[in-house]
Design goal:
With 336 residues, the protein is α/β, with parallel strands linked by helices. It has one domain: NAD(P)-binding Rossmann-like Domain (Rossmann fold), CATH 3.40.50. It contains 13 helices and 15 strands. Helix 2 packs across helix 3.
Length: 336
């Protein structure tokens, strides 16, 4: 079941100069699976910095042979079509991700997260890309803010684009929780706080799913090797109260309650109240399949190879998902 890696293939990463892109590049080089790695992003300065960092780390011969840097915006479908020529795998990581900024700039979030994803899927089909993986978030599940709503729409469009891909272009999503080790993550924020000031806490009972950036990259690589098209792949990860994470990072520090921000949930979900009815257990991951009869062949393949999940609830507040202090400390230190 699924599609096995193709030798000497080409991967393109949208938003490739971000934290995920850099982590995924390292994994690509480590696996030696891809002959060519294309970085697609709109910031010339970040591309220059990444080019310099890669050259220092791997040498100019490796970079000139294996890397291409493509300036462009996912809002520009013609640019995507050009960039996607000869590409086997697209990893779509470009997005606006901060809840308050998306609330204040809804048209920009819509243009990048929804129209940008539509452009990526459409251009990939036009260019004959074999596989596309779109990165998503737990905030797309029963969303209550604009950011989550855009990612929910992006997921739906990506999944149902498989109908138009006609089996030639297969598209899947990966959906995960809060990422540690990324730029602007909670750990980075906590460690940068003024030591003379208390730690700001939104609510003492707020919980979140937590995983390290390296786990996210590995999940995307796994998906690229095992996807059939139409899945939303979800990791089996753990959760913890935000206060417990803060206590492990800054033990003994006083805190102050600042209140829940607009558009913030107390607890997140990794699948909604109905998705468990068509979710399959893949060992390390879950695969949520579309309900549409257009995906009958995919459903049959999963039914013959996997079992349906026994989990009916996947909230960050579920008792069986709560991390120990040792797990939190290990995760925050990057050990996984």
């Amino acid at each position: 079941m699924g599609h096995k890696p193709i030798a000497n293939n080409t991967v393109l990463i949208t938003g490739g100069t971000g934290t995920f892109g850099k982590e995924f590049i390292d994994l690509c080089l480590e696996s030696d699976r891809f002959e060519k790695i294309i970085i697609f992003s709109r910031d010339e300065f970040k591309q220059h910095n990444l080019f310099s960092d890669l050259t220092k780390k791997h040498g100019s011969a490796c970079v000139s042979k294996r890397f291409r840097f493509f300036l462009g915006d996912v809002r520009d479908k013609d640019r995507l079509r050009l960039a996607f020529r000869g590409v086997d795998l697209v990893v779509h990581a470009a997005a606006l991700k901060h809840v308050p900024f998306c609330e204040y700039n809804p048209s920009e979030a819509l243009s990048t997260n929804v129209i940008g994803t539509k452009n990526v899927c459409d251009a990939a089909i036009d260019a004959g890309v074999k596989r596309v993986i779109c990165l998503s978030t737990d905030k797309a599940v029963e969303p209550i803010n604009f950011y989550g709503s855009t990612k929910m729409l992006a997921e739906r469009y990506a999944v149902h684009s498989n109908i138009y891909g006609a089996g030639e272009t297969n598209i899947a999503c990966v959906r995960y929780g809060n990422i540690l080790g990324s730029r602007g993550s909670l750990v980075e924020m906590l460690r940068s706080l003024d030591p003379s000031k208390p730690v700001p806490i939104t609510h003492v009972d707020m919980t979140r799913f937590w995983m390290h950036i390296s786990e996210a990259a590995r999940m995307v690589m796994w998906t690229s090797e095992n996807m059939m098209g139409g899945e939303i792949i979800i990791p089996k990860i753990r959760a913890a109260k935000v206060t417990r994470l803060a206590d492990c990072i800054l033990p003994g520090r006083s805190s102050v309650i600042v209140g829940v921000r607009p558009g913030e949930k107390m607890h997140e979900q990794l699948f909604d109240r109905r998705e468990h009815e068509h979710t399959w257990d893949k060992g390390e991951y879950y695969a949520v399949l579309p309900e549409s009869d257009e995906f009958l062949s995919v459903k049959r393949a999963y039914a013959s190879a996997c079992s349906e999940t026994e989990r009916k609830s996947y909230y960050s507040s579920d008792d069986d998902l709560q991390m120990s202090n040792e797990e939190i400390t290990s995760l925050c230190s990057g050990e996984n």
